[in-house]
Amino acid sequence: MKFEQQFSQQQAQTQTQKLAMTQKLQQSIQILQYNTEDLIDFIDNKALENPLLEVIQPSYSTNYSKPRKSSGEEMNYLSQIPDNSTSLFEHLLDQIHLNYRDTYLRQLVLYLVEYIDLNGFLQISLEEAAEKTGGSAIQLLDALTLIQQLDPAGVGARNLQECLMLQTERDGAAPHLAYVVLEEMFDELVDRKWEKIAKKFDISLNDVQEIFDYIQNLTPTPGAVYGSTEGLFIIPDLTVKIAEQEIKVFSNRKSVPEIKFQQNYFERMKKSQDPEVMKYLKDKQQDYEWLKKTIQQRGDTIYRVGSAIVERQKEFFLNEKRPLKPLTLKDISEELSIHESTVSRAVNGKYLETTFGVFELKSFFSKKISSNTGERSSNDAKHLLQQLVDQEDKAKPLSDQKLTELMKEKGVSISRRTVAKYRDALNIAGSSKRKRYD
């Protein structure tokens, strides 16, 4: 048997179009994804690298920390943020120096305070503290007791159970037996084994319900109120104003620092005629022009995407019930002829301000669900689910299967698994944990 092989070589020229992911392009994509705070940090860093770039900070930087309520106007959304200038550590130190004499015990108190985290919990065991300080177990326990008498109630606790007990102990309005139930049957209370608790303390289920309701109003993180508020400020990218049923969208570009080219400095440096200096100046000038153009494009993209979203969700802004229509990233991308990933970057971490609240742009997207009453969104389903739970008999809460059947009767057909997912998203407990004994 004979095999014949033939080989041939020939040259051919083909033309293909390919997107080169340059560093500048990568940064442009990243800038679109930045929220306003990240963008400000990026611009500030660029200014450190480029002496020809001057940054003019937005005017809000001087007055956002103390929002005021103007007469006839709604409270600025920033007023919702607590103004805490004292940290938990500083607050505890002030109390210790004011209330306790300078003794060895106070030294141990000061040592333990350094191991209290931002939530108010002690992060070192008394055994380890005794080993490191040389103090006895009794002395360390006494020091911890002094800390636990400080404000806020619950500070210095070593676990959640102790934290709740400390708060209950100092509250004269706490229900009878609340402290004892926390101390002796904490796990049973959490697991809702209330019949067992009622039997042990010879009380009614209604009494256990009262104790449970009281404990739910206690704070599991007593020190958190003294935490830093840095990073909690929301700087909206867009503002929506409504007048006579007409919706207008405005871009808040003044919230972004303005960048200017230092022409005078550029001209002075140019006089040297040094080739290296000239190349450096050219590179920095190009960096400035690129940054200015990219920031402008970012603002334009967010405005276009935000305006398209508002147009699609008009009812949300005009109807006090705030209904949302089904809307996907693909809907907006097709309308604006841009990629879905661009829409995603333009809505994540970007906010829209209204007279009734501040909303993240991505919150206006909602999946379509099957319905026999017309087009419905997943937000409609969640709203209906919440209504059904609010109206249920608390002594006989509705199971997920029953909720599924009731929703189907009202025109929303979703699976039991989806009901459970929506229930979790709404922070609604399961039927067994919603049962009340009032």
Automatic annotation (TrEMBL):
Highest rank taxon of the organism: Bacteria
Domain RNA polymerase sigma factor 54 DNA-binding intervals: 279-436
InterPro entries, per database record: RNA_pol_sigma_54, RNA_pol_sigma_54_core-bd, RNA_pol_sigma_54_DNA-bd, RpoN_core-bd_sf
Domain RNA polymerase sigma factor 54 core-binding: 80-265
Keyword Transcription regulation appears in the UniProt entry: yes
Keywords: DNA-binding, DNA-directed RNA polymerase, Nucleotidyltransferase, Sigma factor, Transcription, Transcription regulation, Transferase
Family: Belongs to the sigma-54 factor family.
Protein name in the entry: RNA polymerase factor sigma-54
Organism: Tetragenococcus solitarius
Name of encoding gene: rpoN
